[in-house]
Amino acid sequence: MSRGRLLALPGALALLVGLPACPDPIGCTTSPALPPSVTELMLVGVPTHLTVHAALPGCIPEAPRPSSLAVELSGPDNLPVPVQKAFEPANPTLGVLHFIPEQAGRYHLFAAFDPVGGIIQADLHAARDRSGETAPVMLPLDCGTLERTQPGAWICDVRVLREGVLVRDFPGSRLAVAGEVVWRMDPRLIERYVDTGTELVLTGTWPHAEGKVEAVLATRETLVALHGQTVQHVAFDGTALTGGAPTRWATGTELPSGLGPKALLMRAGDTLAITAGRPFGSSSPFSNEACPYTVVNGRIERTASACTGFNGSVVGFEPGGLWVEEPGTQTLSYHAWTPGGLMPRAAMSLNGLQTFFTTAEGKNTSVPVLTSSQNFPSSLGRTLRPPHALMPAYDAVQRRLLLEYLDSGMVLPQASSTLMWGRSTVFTSGSPFTALRILSRPPALP
Prior knowledge:
mainly beta; 5-stranded antiparallel β-sheet; 40 strands
């Protein structure tokens, strides 16, 4: 039996597959279509309209045509979703489907033309529209890394801005933000500053000889700094910085596939993790591993627990876990770091979505942005123009990954645990110029 396919009507969604031209769309049938190659995007609560098109065995006017269309749609909970179907005997190679996705997540469509015309099976993703929950902020410069202090200062790479004006610059350094605290690191010195809302006040310094910082875990009172061969822990005791001796962690590791820095840091309670490529000469079937550490008397020490191995390319990292693209598949998965090791939590298909992930030096957290070039309607009744920026979110209750729509028209989007930003064209006095468009990520939904 030949396969069918989905095509777009104006304002409708589309699965983009090739279709040979035919002189008469009713009396002339078409050749079999390729399997769908683009995952549909929908918004929760917004009416969705899909057109399904039969695929028939050849351009022969007298060939039989479909006489009926059967449709089944299941939601993220695998329960049936009501679908209104329009099938006209006068044009039996087309069927129009109408439904409203009420839940975020993956939907599965099954449609079959009978007695000829093929079977269509496709996955559709419904994203939560959270674009109205965050107001954009514009900065007049580009940033590879971006954080914001609690009093409102922007940390753009090594620059500090207030109200869009540069107030401080730390060339040759790396910066990390925790609340009102800004940590500055260079190959020989660690400094702790407090943002008062008007200035940065130095509250402590810690000299060291460990070289460049590869990765950071920062809180208001503590800093874990990972270097090329060692890791160190520094704490603020209320008056000054203190710390234990550095700990050697590197054992002949190679660069993990997909990672920007040589290694990454994670934390779950008192258990730290260093994630890196497998050591040279290792017989492990895994390309990467996460090994547990803890802090003992101010010094980081390796625990007795075994490392957790995993395969794939890391496309995002946060203190609580990793975002991984599975090898050989278009699948994004989330792995949570726990006291028991790195645990895979959930996965989703990326069919038709592009993963945008940058490995800019100095990133302290990074979350992949999924982009789509597909038009789809919004909850306001207007068509959202691509490119669309969507964020994956882990639903810990249902243990699944969901998509959240935040913005359209953003070029080269990037994201951290708290922010998403990208280039955008704005107009001043009628003249266009490119600025950085910044969105705060809305808090996680229950």
